Structures are given as C-alpha cells and as structure tokens.
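Researcher: Sequence of M13 family metallopeptidase follows. Predict its structure.
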Amino acid sequence: MNKRLICTTLFSCSCAMAATPAAPLNPTPAMQHSTAAKPRMQDDFYLAVNGDWLNSAQIPADASFVFGADLSGITSKRLHKIIVELAGSKNPAGSVAEKVGTFYATYLDTARLDQLGRTPLNAILTEIDALASTSELAHWQGKAQGRMETPVHFPFVMPGLQDPTTNQAMLAQGGLGLPDRSYYLPGNDAQSANIFTAYRIYLLKLAKLAQLPQAQALVEQALSVESQIAQAQWELAKSRDPGNIATMQIAELIKAAPGFDWLAFLDGANLKGQTTLSNLQPGAVLAITQLYAKIPLAHWKAYSKLQSLNEAAPLLSAEFRAAHFDFYGTTLNGQTEPEPQSTKAVARLNSAMGEALGQLYVARHFPADHKARMQELVKNLLTAYRDAISRLTWMTPATKQQALDKIAKYGTKIGYPDVWRDYSSLNIVAGDALGNQHRAARFDWEFKAAKAGKKADKRDWDMLPQMVNAQYNPLRNDIEFPAAHLQAPYFDMSADDASNYGAIGAVIGHEISHGFDNMGSQFDGDGNFRNWWATADKAAFQAMGDKLVQQFSAYQLFPGKHVNGQLTLSENMADLAGLQIAYDAYINTLKGKKSPLINGLTGEQRFFYSYAQSRRSKFRPELAAQWLVTDPHAPDVFRINGVVINIDGFHQAFHTQPGDGMFNSQANRLRIW
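Model: Prediction complete. Tokens:
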C-alpha cells in the first residue's frame, strides 16, 4: 500500500485518475482519439467539450499522464523558483532557507551520487546482516517507519476510531514493491504476469549492482516473502469500509500473533508505552504478522535488503537510478524519459520540509481575498446541502435530524494551517542526499508519533498547502482545501459564478458529500464511528449505492477492463451528490433571475462545461491498467458522463431526447441527496 493509496483506507480525496473518452452507456473507448467531427453534447458530453484538447494534447516523455488543468505542474514551477532563489542565496546557518537550499543542491549533485555508488546504503545493509532474531527484525522495521513501508506499518497518527478526541497510531498492511496484491496472485492475466516477471528481473539487477552475495537466491527469497504478504493482504475494496477498522489493545495483538515482537516494533517506531491503536485492516495485519513465525529469518533479511535497495535506488549511482526508472517509469507507467532531477528534487523537498515550503508558497501565491471568496463558496454549498437534506422524501425525520446535525458541525480548512511546523531540529547535510531523505522521513514520523495518545487537535492538517487535492476527514468531520488546488480553472477570481461553481464548487460539493457517502455516513457529526441511521433509511441508501455500483461496473476503459464499481463507490457517490449540490448552489446565486448568456452558452450550460473541462485528461495505457486496480476514483470520462446523465439540470440545459447517447430517462436518474 503506497503513499498514493492511503486515502483508499480511510480518507476521501478528490484526486483523479486519467481517462479517455467514451459513450456513457456503451463504454468501450479506443485509445486513439479521432480527429473526426466532435459529437453533439447530447451524445457524448465529455468528448464534445474536450475533443479538441484530447486530439492536440501530448503526454510529455517524462510523464505518464497529462491533465487539462496542470495545477501540479504550475505549482511545481512556482516551488522550483522559490527553492532556486533560496539555494542561490547566502542564508543563516541552521535556517529553513539554508536547509531547503542545501537539500536541493545535494539532490541535484548526480556526480556525487555516481561517485558514492551504493555506499550511502552500506550502513543499513550492515544493520540487516547483523539481525540475529525476529525480535531484532521487528525493532529494525519499527525504526524504518517514515523511511520505507514495512509489511505492517504506520501511515499516520489520527483521532481514534472509537474516541476521536484522542490521537491513535493507525496500523496498516503494506510492504509490497508492486502497486497491488493482485500482481502476486496466481491466475493473473498476461499483462500482470509480465509485470511480475519484469519486477523479478529488476530486483535481480539491484542485487547484482549492489554486489550482494548469491543474488539470485536472495531475489527468490525476497519474492517469496512478498508473495506471502500479498496473499495475506485485503483487496482495496474491502479496505474502503471503515466498518472493518478495529480499535485494538496491544495485548490483543500480542496474543493473536505471538511470533511477531510487537513491543520491539513499537519501541523502534517511537511508540513505546502506547496500549491502543487503530488497525485499518485487522485481519490482514494479523495474517501478515503471523508470517514472522513461519518464514525463515534469512528470507526476511533478503526481503529487507531488496526493499531497502529499491527505496534508495533513486539516490544511488546512475546504474541504480536507470534500473529504477526502467521498471517504475517505463514498465509500470509507460514513461519514455525520466523526470528532470530538479523536478524530483522539488517533490522530495515537499516530503522532507513540506510545511516550510508551504509557508513560503502561500505568502506569494494565495492572497487573503482568495481565501475569503472560497469561504463564501463553501458557505453557499453547505447551505445548499442543508436544504437538500431538509427536502428529502426517502429519509425518516429522526435520521434526517442526525444528518442536519452533522452538516452543522462541519469544519472547513482553506489554504493553509493556522500553526506552522518547526524544522529547527532537522539535520540536513551537504553531500548526503540519501541521508537527508532518510533523516527527513524519520523526523516527519517522529513528529507524528509524538501525537499518539494525546488530545486530538482539530487544527491539524492532513495535506500540505502546495498539494493539489482536497479531502474530507470523517474523524474530524472537516473538509480541507489546500491553496495549490485553488487555482484556475478550478477556482478563478476573475471567472463568473457558473464557471467557479462548475469546477471548484463541484470539488467542494464532492468533499462535503463524502461525509454522507457509504464510508462517511458511518460517522456522526462529532467524528464518532456509530450508526445514526434508521434501519429503513439505511436499506434505502444501500439500494441507491447498489444501483451506482451496477452503473459504473458496466463501464470499460479498454475491452475487458471494467471499472470496479465497488472500489469506486464512495467517490462516485461524492461526484454525483457533489455536482448536484454545486448546481443547486449556483442556481441559488441567480435568485430567480435568468442566467446571463456568455459566448452563446447559458449559465447552466457553462456550469456543466466547466465541470467537464476541469477533469479532462490523457494517460498512458500502462498507468491506466494499474489505476483501474488501485484507484478509488473512476476514470475521468466516467466521472463526467456517468454523473451528468443523472442530473436533471444537465438534461434541461442541453435538451436531451430519447435516442441521444447522453439521454437517461427521469425514472432511471439517480439522486441521493
């Protein structure tokens, strides 16, 4: 479970995968975009709006996808400019500016990386060689938290599932070098089998480059461990249900998996003395830790060496870097060229000193008037959501009151945190790129671990200001919109309401709606995990979800490659409800007046245009196949066509008729809220 997938277990995010156009009700899209005349809006809305862009947009050689709104690219360039300025200045010793400049310059020094070879990793490989017991292994894996993803690991510290007033460490499955457990399982399709074979070749290349003795045997031992971990893991769709999360006592874990030294693991992870934690995948975690008593220590050591080499490869010599790119860049993602080292350096700095960079970013690029306008938009969307709940006919009064209570307690975070992190104790050393990365990762983990067992602070943020994303956190019952996401075309101070409500308004509605999707609806307004639904209401809600699963499961991105309607359910619910509420909020701004006609389009039409344009994208097929398995979001084409066909306002705006590709009879349109 890599960092990109953390939101698949608990958080609900708006990050999207890319897709090619397809008709909504007969979705078998071709990978090549036709240069023929665009279809009518009423036949394929996504392609009609975005066809010109899809035909002309090129995916850069060093990328796997391209979005019509390249907010990440814009943000990265802005950060790069800030960092270069700091790196080129003489800064006070120990200052944030000096640390940022040193980290960046050291990361760029590939001649130094080439000179050092595998030397930066020697100390870690020696540590692994010295492990004499599974207890020592467990302690070593605890120390690795933040640096690498171990078979069971702590992705974050958050308010507890049963007691959201107190922080708990969140325990999760992990430890795989491939994107998902399915790649390791027997009976895979040819594409997945080929990827597994390429992964074996890649690991062998790492072992030989590092001059590890008996390289072939080490790789087979490591792959055996990984395969057993994969078989023990849960599939991602199961991980999406918070009802499967367990609050567990350490004593329970020790009793259930005595072959794993839990106390040594916690001690290494700076969590000594903690007695309770949240287990995101309890059955999988217990199955994985039971493997420690069955698998020979020598195999665990082989696995740990290969995983450490894999994690470090981008900051070792050129041969290691090339091998890493050949597999993760080309084989998995279809890239033909690696990203520039400067781009990778900015991304690593984001991980190493994210809030320090965020503070510099918002000072230049997120003025106070942007925040004020966003606060107004959020307020209007929340009002529209309250009105929608109040009008519901399928929900009983008692459940409706609980829903209204929850929406009234929503917290809103816009732009950046109120309190910034202190980086004074982080040690950044010139000439030690890998060491800087590891020290920064451990620094970040220790910052998080220090919160475990303490009172939860609702001011805490889960994302950085320079992150292009948005989120709903059910444990805090709040929505979060980082500054970098609040740029044109999503959020444009100069744009009319129709454009802003169709783009950023849909994002706001999406995140609000996550509190009432199949996951978020299991939490109340105070973040408690409890059932506040009447039985009949829950059954009606479940039936709506089943219809949405059925609708999206019918969509194919490639022939035979379907969307996983169950995995994508909560995001599809949020897309549907969010767009509906954003549309309602836009209509409210008109105050009964007719919308203005601009460029031949009514306000209602521009609203849907803006939504479709904000999510246009192209991808490489290698990445698309991977994301179909791992991403809880449906491909963008279906997030557009598959959603708007359920919105009455869309059919009214574009006058769809029976026989049109986008027509969906009113009886079949699904409105949840």
